[in-house]
Specification:
mainly alpha; 7 helices
Length: 125
């Protein structure tokens, strides 16, 4: 079977799995993202490797990682824009999204192309 015919079937299967267990899918995704980012600055700061192994990963994450406002994140974003690697996601972040600034000034947020892979693939597991 050609890839062009197989890909829609695989995507549909992933979508169905997500619909059957959305909370489980999101929990598995969180665990994989924590594992992937465990060796970053944020991963070491908040113990992502340990969190990823927690029996209730969501509760452990919520207990350990505080909510952040953009202002809390601003210095790290500036460092990533300067090319520093491994701050909150592995490697250098090369793409940044800019908010429209309707409620305040425009803000820059990191957008890692490699980060979207686990999100898309998460429903398959």
């Amino acid at each position: 079977m050609s890839l062009a015919r197989l890909l829609p079937r695989l995507l549909l299967r992933r979508h169905r799995r997500f619909l059957q267990d959305p909370a489980g899918t999101q929990t598995r995704l969180l665990r994989r993202l924590l594992e992937r980012a465990a060796h970053t600055e944020w991963g070491r700061r908040y113990g992502f490797a340990e969190l990823a192994r927690a029996r209730d990963v969501v509760r452990a994450y919520q207990a350990r990682v505080p909510l952040h406002t953009y202002d809390d994140f601003r210095d790290d974003v500036a460092r990533m824009r300067r090319g520093e690697a491994d701050i909150c996601w592995p490697g250098r972040i090369r793409h940044f999204a800019v908010s429209s600034g309707t409620a305040s000034e425009a803000r820059s947020s990191p957008s890692a192309a490699k980060c979207s892979g686990p999100i898309v693939a998460s429903a398959s597991r």
